[in-house]
Write a structure and sequence with these properties.
The chain is of the alpha+beta class and 378 residues long. The protein has two domains: 2-196 and 373-377, Ribosomal Protein S5, domain 2 (2-Layer Sandwich); 200-368, GHMP kinase, C-terminal domain (Alpha-Beta Plaits), CATH 3.30.70.890. Helices cover 43% and strands 23% of the residues. It has eleven helices and 13 strands. It has helices at residues 2-16, 90-102, 126-141, 148-163, 170-177, 220-234, 245-250, 257-281, 285-302, 308-319, 342-360, and strands at residues 21-30, 42-43, 45-58, 63-68, 73-78, 110-116, 182-187, 193-197, 203-213, 324-327, 333-341, 365-368, 376-377. The chain has a six-stranded mixed beta sheet with strand order 5-4-6-3-1-13, with helices on both faces. A four-stranded antiparallel beta sheet has the order 10-11-9-12. Helix 2 (90-102) packs across helix 3 and helix 2 (90-102) packs across helix 4 (148-163). It is globular, with a radius of gyration of 21 Å. The structure holds alpha-D-galactopyranose. Residues 34-35, 37-38, 125, 167-168, 170-171, 329-330 line the site of alpha-D-galactopyranose.
């Protein structure tokens, strides 16, 4: 983060002069509870030590100039719907500005420079980090008075209205509310949340990034969401959350096999998250790990959001006696999240690298999870 801060400050000063104020916002991991957020269910995320740093300063015009260090590109845009930026990365920032305005915020023109170190396409939500850092900063700099939950919703609405992804609230919530050393259990129906200190003695939590991103045509994410909403409707419920397997079986003849399997995954995931909460309270990490594997194979076989490379990494983990391993995030590539006993860590990482490289031609990246604070001024 330090180097990135210096780079962002220096670039800001060189391009736009003095007076840029520094903000940061993280990416996230999720222990368990995948594709449950938009079903009104529970998620278990934590913010990480990788994120976006931005320097921002109001410029007293109605135009914005934003420079992305990683893309080496500047976007220029205004603040009305007609004045959208051209580069697609700038949609996140334009969208956030617009969503704050829709909530009554008097957002004016600004100059900004930003850089990030959340690996792209890894399922760690670099986009939520970008949305949150701008939502948090513009809210402060323009005195919009939007509360933290609504800031998370500003990011989510940006995805819905400007980026075409009908995501749930987990990523933006984690990026805004993150707290060092704590995972968070969020009930996405009531929006109640609790911090869970997470220091599993004798275990390591880390990610293996396959560095594979499958670009699927259409929008497979939105498509999963539609299936869930359809089944909930058939069940006469607002959300799939709270539905039982018995209820699902009862309507099996009225829905497609695909929708049935997707709903079966979501209902199973709900009970796994609750079981993990209990297991964590008892310090039973082996049980947590078992549920992680179940989530993986549910996401692979029923929800169909995994891929060959991620299934392979999880199989290697199983063969090495790793306590838990699963695909993390929306799917179709990215990382596995792994819970492993200290003494098995080195052997597993070596094996995973070697076996993956032998099959796919490159090694996965290893990221140790450091659970960190959410959006903040630096
Ligand atoms: C993406 C979405 C989240 C959530 C996850 C899957 O990260 O942005 O809202 O649905 O996928 O758990």
């Amino acid at each position: 983060m330090k180097n990135m801060q210096t780079q962002v400050c220096e670039t800001f000063a060189a391009r736009y002069g003095e007076g840029g104020q520094l903000f940061a916002s993280p990416g996230r991991i999720n222990l368990i509870g995948e594709h449950t957020d938009y079903n009104g269910g529970f998620v278990f995320p934590g913010a990480v030590d990788k994120g976006i740093v931005a320097a921002i300063r109001p410029n007293h015009t109605n135009q914005c100039r934003v420079y992305a260090i990683d893309m080496q590109e500047e976007a220029l845009f205004g603040l009305t719907e007609e004045e959208r930026p051209i580069p697609s990365w700038a949609f996140y920032i334009f969208g956030v500005s617009r969503e704050l305005q829709k909530r009554g915020g008097q957002v004016g023109g600004f100059d900004a420079v930003f850089a990030g170190n959340v690996p792209l396409g890894a399922g760690m939500s670099s986009s939520a980090a970008l949305e949150s850092v701008f939502a948090f900063a513009l809210n402060e700099l323009f005195g919009c008075g939007v509360d933290k939950f609504e800031l998370a919703r500003v990011g989510q609405s940006t995805e819905h209205n400007y980026c075409g992804v009908k995501c749930g609230i987990m990523d933006q919530f984690a990026s805004v509310f993150g707290k060092e050393g704590c995972l968070m259990r969020l009930d996405c129906r009531s929006m109640e949340y609790a911090y869970f200190p997470f220091r599993p003695a004798g275990y390591r939590l880390f990610l293996l990034d396959s560095r594979v991103k499958h670009q699927l045509t259409g929008s497979p994410y939105n498509d999963r969401r539609l299936s869930c909403e359809h089944v909930a409707k058939v069940l006469g419920q607002e959300f799939l959350r709270g539905a039982t397997m018995e209820q699902l079986e009862a309507v099996r003849g009225e829905i497609s096999e695909e929708d049935y399997k997707r709903a079966r995954y979501v209902i199973g995931e709900e009970s796994r998250v609750l079981d993990v909460c209990e297991a964590l309270e008892q310090g039973d990490y082996e049980r947590v790990g078992k549920r992680m594997y179940e989530t993986h194979w549910g996401m692979s076989h029923d929800y169909e959001v995994s891929c060959e490379e991620l299934d392979f990494l999880v199989e290697v983990a199983e063969a090495c006696g790793v306590s838990g391993s699963r695909i993390m995030g929306g799917g179709f590539g990215g990382c596995t999240i792994n819970l492993v006993k200290e003494e098995l860590y080195d052997a597993f990482v070596a094996k995973a690298k070697e076996a993956f490289a032998a099959r796919y031609g490159h090694e996965p990246m290893v990221y140790n999870v450091v659970i960190s604070d959410g959006a903040r001024r630096l």
